[in-house]
Design goal:
This protein is α+β, with helices and mostly antiparallel strands. It has one domain (about 1-75): S16 Ribosomal Protein, Chain: A (2-Layer Sandwich), CATH 3.30.1320.10. About 25% of the residues lie in helices and about 40% in strands. It contains 2 helices and 5 strands, in the order E-E-E-E-H-E-H. The chain has a 5-stranded mixed beta sheet with strand order 4-3-2-1-5. The longest helix has 9 residues, at about 50-60. The model has no long low-confidence stretch (mean pLDDT about 95).
């Protein structure tokens, strides 16, 4: 199963996330298929950048977003 999920980057206590498409069995920061966006929770307002074309391509192929990514997409009105 393919998931759209977050991969953590950044330093200790300074998180930065990539929105990635990965196999559900791969580790959080491990192998992935494609980067489709970024999420920065530390700036005000929260910064979310997602490539709509890549998102639609993977959703049409059957990729399912995790609950956290689904919340981000709903806030950005992409779902």
């Amino acid at each position: 199963m393919i998931k759209i999920r977050l991969a953590r980057k950044g330093r200790k206590k300074n998180p930065f996330y990539r929105v990635i498409v990965a196999d559900a069995r791969s580790p959080r920061d491990g192998k992935f298929l494609e980067i489709i966006g970024t999420y920065n929770p530390l700036v005000d307002p929260i910064e979310v950048k997602i490539d709509k074309e890549k998102l639609n391509k993977w959703v049409s192929k059957g990729a399912k977003p995790t609950k956290s990514v689904e919340g981000l997409l709903k806030n950005q009105k992409l779902l």
